[in-house]
Design goal:
Layout: H1 2-19, H2 43-50, E1 55-59, E2 62-68, E3 73-81, E4 84-93, H3 103-109
Antiparallel strand pairs: 1-2, 2-3, 3-4
Length: 117
């Protein structure tokens, strides 16, 4: 009888674990929309505009280029487009609630020619 009681409690406990809602919520997706002048831009043009990235991550044919500024970071996601890579998505941290990329951040990361003295 004791064995039956222990087995019953174990089964009830396992059923309770299986039906409990222990799921972790996924983070929300970034807002849609790409900065108009960057979507589809060739990788070589990104390097001319922003310089070499501080970090590159490759996942198969997809690359993520990270640029670090004093107040923000930009992430360019590039995928194959013909013989080169092209920008498919851009995000910045921080960014506003209604856009994945902050225009002021991207503007601040652009390479600017230094004045000749």
């Amino acid at each position: 009888m004791r064995l039956f009681l222990c087995a019953s409690l174990l089964v009830i406990g396992l059923v309770g674990c299986a039906t409990s809602d222990n799921q972790t919520a996924l983070p929300s997706a970034p807002p849609i929309g790409e900065p108009g002048n960057l979507a589809g831009m060739d990788a070589s043009r990104i390097r001319v505009a922003f310089g070499p990235p501080q970090f590159i991550r490759k996942d198969g044919q997809i690359e993520m280029w990270r640029y670090d500024g004093p107040n923000c970071k930009a992430f360019f996601f590039l995928s194959p487009a013909g013989p080169s890579l092209a920008v498919k998505h851009v995000e910045t941290l921080p960014h506003q609630a209604n856009a994945a990329a902050d225009a002021n951040c991207l503007q601040g990361l652009l390479i600017r020619p230094k004045a000749v003295s």
